[in-house]
Design goal:
By secondary structure, the protein is of the alpha/beta class. The chain is built from seven helices and 37 strands. The chain folds into two domains: about 1-140, Spore Coat Polysaccharide Biosynthesis Protein SpsA, Chain A (Alpha-Beta Complex); about 150-410, UDP N-Acetylglucosamine Acyltransferase, domain 1, CATH 2.160.10.10. Strand 36 and strand 37 form a beta hairpin.
Length: about 400
Amino acid sequence: MNIVLFEDEQVCRLHPATIGRPAFAITCGGYRLIDLIVSWKVPCCYVVRPYLKTIVASDFPQPSSSLNLSEPLLLVNAALVPSVTTLKHLQAFAEQGKPGIIRLGTRIAAAFIPADQPPEARQLNTEAIDRYLQNLKAPVYEADLALFHYPHDIIRHHQTIMLENLEDRLKHQHYVEIASGVYAAEGATLGEYCVTDTTDGPILLDQEAKIGPYSYLTGPAYLGPKARVIEHSAIKDGVSLGHTTKIGGEVEASIIEPYTNKQHHGFLGHSYLGSWINLGAGTCNSDLKNTYGEVNMEYCGEKVATGMQFVGCIVGDYAKTAVNTSIFTGKVIGSCSMLYGFITTNVPSFTNYARSFGQATEQSPDVAIATQARMFARRKVQQRPCDIQLIHDMYRQTQHERQLANEPLSL
């Protein structure tokens, strides 16, 4: 059997989380879907949006040399929530060996295609797979699976799957218990005079993760390799830090992707931060309305009820905030944007947003590329042609966000 991770036509609803990454690379509950699929040790390949093909080929495990498309295929929607339960249901579905689909509403979560099915099912491009699945007449199976439909779903599911995912890490990776319920991989350290509370779940420190002194942490929490939490920080109620992040202040129930900095004091709650973001000193967000009511989000002009009382901000890759930036409840911050002052509305990608000072202008991709080069150099990461091209592609993919009455954004 071979696995094909595919993005369906609704993947763009997850912007800005998926502007610069495939849906299977979204971190939720301390795992990405690709992490779980790779752990299955079954040959796998990817069907993603055309502009992401080069970066995916560079950054993710290449299709196995044993990949044989004449064998049965398991098609897996890349927007599936990456929980251990998800993996178990996919494995049980595949073990049946029978043609069938798992449908969640109008979307297909997975499909099993036996070896004797028509060849069009084996054309590895988005259009062919979408066309095939739309016309597929096969038994529909039930499974306890969930898909990301909108960005706030990442935060919603993160809170429900965090504990089981961390328990799975403890089973399959080597950690040493260095305090009650606190587990450290090789080279990880817990600073002096730290207070930890693991009543609601464990705290996992991956390789070379470091916690500064006088910090407070509650589980469940996951700190990725080389993550650094500075002194006097508070990490609370379900936080997942990607590798090589620098985090300070108070962080609650949030996901922070690799290479992002929130090094200074300030509050971040119930939020999703992409990669290579920098939050300036004193930057805070709100995750609760003054009315204590449920938060409604706005995506591309569409109002969406979340059914959630706590929703912070969704921030795309490479965004930056100035000192003392204040982000209001439930705001979506586009990739490669620069923020100043009070953020009272959603912010388009590639925007210099200083609306509280009467300014909001478009940012050139050339500026974003130059900034990327400086950031990469600080972390000893080489800027590749595919990284530069991705910035240009992200700019084109988000052009519509910066149009007002068919004119370029300029307020």
